[in-house]
């Protein structure tokens, strides 16, 4: 089981201890207690709520189906290689902030066994955390990334942040001096062939500049950025899953989106990701 001592209670910020008897429970010295759901995740938002919409069960199923087809495997492999190249320690403490199903975290765990010592996946979606809880030796926690991360100062070697809200002040706080923050965003040409016909959100330009400025203000130095670009051959079912797993899933009916995907037929679609590496200053 993972070492939970780096976890903090979201109520009082005391250290949380993990116990398994009679059921999996996280508890702090002040008596605050969080029992694992039957699917294995912990919900730290109980009684707190959030202003953001969680991805629904159908949206998460669409994401899982799309990821399982390997369309983003090249990105996942690159992230795992970047972590392995930056850290060679016997133990690696990692947080996936906005983890979704835990797909990218899972690839890192598979390729970097030391990361299994204490992995933490966070997302506001209970349905996503059900999937992430299945990862080996990983604590999956329902939590809002905009809030204080429930982990101690300088407690983590890697912060992973893929297509999720950024909280650079908290990323910097939890990182160790030689830590690495990996941020993934969609490039301007990402999914350009299908964004409009599938009612997907456009991608604003100038993202890298604003990201570097935002993270630099929180004492995170921009180490480098790289673009990963390739072509995907997508069937109508892939196109539906691709659109429905994102923001479109919140405002379009599934049958409407499926009809749009079927009308497009089989398509060659550009995958284009910008991967940004940040390290703590000093």
From TrEMBL:
<dbReference type="GO" id="GO:0052911">
    <property type="term" value="F:23S rRNA (guanine(745)-N(1))-methyltransferase activity"/>
</dbReference>
<keyword id="KW-0489">Methyltransferase</keyword>
<dbReference type="InterPro" id="IPR029063">
    <property type="entry name" value="SAM-dependent_MTases_sf"/>
</dbReference>
<keyword id="KW-0808">Transferase</keyword>
<protein>
    <submittedName>
        <fullName>23S rRNA (Guanine745-N1)-methyltransferase</fullName>
        <ecNumber>2.1.1.187</ecNumber>
    </submittedName>
</protein>
<dbReference type="InterPro" id="IPR048647">
    <property type="entry name" value="RlmA_N"/>
</dbReference>
<dbReference type="Pfam" id="PF21302">
    <property type="entry name" value="Zn_ribbon_RlmA"/>
</dbReference>
<dbReference type="InterPro" id="IPR016718">
    <property type="entry name" value="rRNA_m1G-MeTrfase_A_prd"/>
</dbReference>
<feature type="domain" description="23S rRNA (guanine(745)-N(1))-methyltransferase N-terminal">
    <location>
        <begin position="8"/>
        <end position="45"/>
    </location>
</feature>
């Amino acid at each position: 089981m993972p070492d939970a001592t780096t976890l903090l209670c979201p109520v009082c910020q005391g250290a949380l201890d993990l116990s398994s008897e009679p059921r999996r429970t996280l508890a702090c010295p002040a008596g605050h207690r969080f029992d694992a759901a039957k699917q294995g995740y912990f919900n730290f938002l109980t009684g707190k709520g959030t202003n953001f919409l969680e991805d629904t069960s159908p949206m998460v199923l669409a994401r899982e189906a799309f990821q399982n087809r390997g369309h983003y495997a090249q990105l996942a492999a690159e992230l795992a290689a970047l972590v392995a190249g930056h850290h060679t320690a016997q133990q690696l403490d990692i947080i996936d902030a906005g983890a979704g199903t835990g797909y990218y975290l899972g690839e890192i765990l598979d390729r970097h066994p030391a990361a299994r010592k204490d992995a933490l996946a966070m997302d506001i979606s209970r349905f996503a955390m059900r999937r992430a809880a299945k990862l080996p030796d990983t604590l999956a926690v329902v939590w809002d990334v905009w809030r204080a991360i429930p982990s101690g100062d300088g407690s983590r070697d890697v912060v992973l942040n893929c297509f999720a809200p950024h909280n650079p002040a908290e990323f910097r706080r939890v990182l160790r001096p030689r830590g690495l923050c990996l941020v993934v965003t969609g490039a301007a040409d990402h999914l350009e062939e299908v964004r409009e016909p599938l009612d997907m959100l456009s991608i604003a330009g100038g993202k890298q500049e604003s990201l570097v400025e935002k993270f630099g203000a929180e004492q995170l130095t921009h180490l480098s950025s790289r673009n990963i670009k390739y072509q995907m051959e997508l069937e109508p079912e892939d196109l539906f899953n691709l659109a429905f797993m994102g923001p479109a899933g919140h405002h379009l009916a599934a049958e409407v989106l499926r009809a749009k995907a079927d009308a497009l037929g089989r398509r060659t679609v550009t995958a284009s990701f910008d991967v940004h590496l940040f390290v703590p200053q000093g």
